[in-house]
Design brief:
Blueprint: H1 5-12, H2 15-23, H3 28-31, H4 42-55, H5 57-67, H6 82-85, H7 90-109, H8 115-118, E1 121-124, E2 128-131, H9 132-156
Antiparallel strand pairs: 1-2
Helix pairs in contact: 1-9, 2-7, 2-9, 4-5, 4-7, 5-9
């Protein structure tokens, strides 16, 4: 599938509602679940996504539009979210993430990017040259990766409880 901005926005705009549907009303047992001690739990995922809204996606879009490949992206700290979420209940995190995403998408829409804009390049600190469409496609896949991570983490909590059906529950593999 070729990247199309309007199709990307279909996913990006529904991520907050998807996470709300998955997590709202869940007990702390579900929300604190981790597949491994160092893995993200649901609150960590929200914090990570919020931090990316603030420091990664749209700031990098702006960097590409303003400087092209003359100024590389700042490295993204995957764990810098911790202070952002500390002491906040899940419902507050869900609301804050939804507002951050609305702002990001409004800003993105205001850019009126066409094919020429999407072909502009920036410089990733690890990968080198990337296009604006690469960045935006990665934003979509990043969202879907973390939605899948939340779902897999929740499912993993019942990995032993399913008994012999584990053979048919491939999400637990």
């Amino acid at each position: 599938m070729q990247f199309k901005l309007e199709e990307a926005i279909e996913v990006l705009s529904t991520t907050p509602a998807t996470l709300t549907a998955l997590l709202q009303g869940k007990s702390e047992v579900w929300l604190s679940a981790r597949k491994t001690p160092e893995a993200f739990n649901a609150s960590d995922v929200l914090g990570h996504l919020m931090h990316a809204e603030l420091t990664d996606w749209m700031p990098r879009v702006q960097l590409i539009l303003e400087y092209g490949d003359a100024r590389p992206f700042q490295p993204f700290d995957r764990f810098a979210f911790r202070g952002l979420i500390e002491g906040k209940p899940l419902n507050q995190l869900l609301q804050e993430f939804a507002e951050l995403r609305r702002t990001s998408l409004a800003n993105l829409a205001g850019l009126s990017l066409g094919d020429t804009g999407l072909a502009l390049t920036g410089v990733h600190p690890e990968f080198g040259p990337v296009t604006l469409s690469n960045l935006l496609a990665t934003w979509v896949v990043h969202d879907l990766t973390h939605i899948a991570q939340v779902v897999k983490t929740l499912a993993y909590e019942y990995r032993d409880a399913v008994g012999p059906w584990r053979a048919y529950t491939t999400i637990l593999d």
